[in-house]
Amino acid sequence: MPSGGLTAEQATPTELASLIRDHSKVEALHHVRDVTFAEDASRLRTSTAPRAMATWRNLAIGALRLAGDTNLASALRHNARDAHRPLAYSAT
Predict the structure, then answer these.
(1) Cα(13)–Cα(89) distance, rounded to whole angstroms?
(2) What is the pLDDT of residues 7-58, one digit of tens each?
(3) Bigger pLDDT: 49 or 87?
(4) CA-wise closest residue to 54 among 32, 70, 71, 73
């Protein structure tokens, strides 16, 4: 249902397009988390652990993108080689 509580029949094409774009952004982020971090294979299922790990993964993705990285898997491998790199990270 679009924001404002309208049904699909009541929403304008612009409102529907905005909802579709917003949903696509969420799905794109989930796809990156799953492919890069194998999130769907995670065994964390209880309490707040799944949400906490998703937050940490989102933070890592956001920080790498802000630094200009486009290949997140490569950037993660690069930073994993030295424990001090992520603390002072800049894209290579």
Answers:
(1) 42
(2) 878 888 898 888 888 888 888 888 999 999 988 888 888 899 999 999 999 9
(3) 49
(4) 32
Core vs surface per residue 56-79: b (16+ CB within 10 A) or e: ebeebbeebeeeebeebeebbebb
The pTM of the full predicted model, rounded to 2 decimals, is 0.68
Residue with tokens 């989102």, as numbered in its chain: 58
Whose CA is closest to 32, among 82, 76, 68?
76
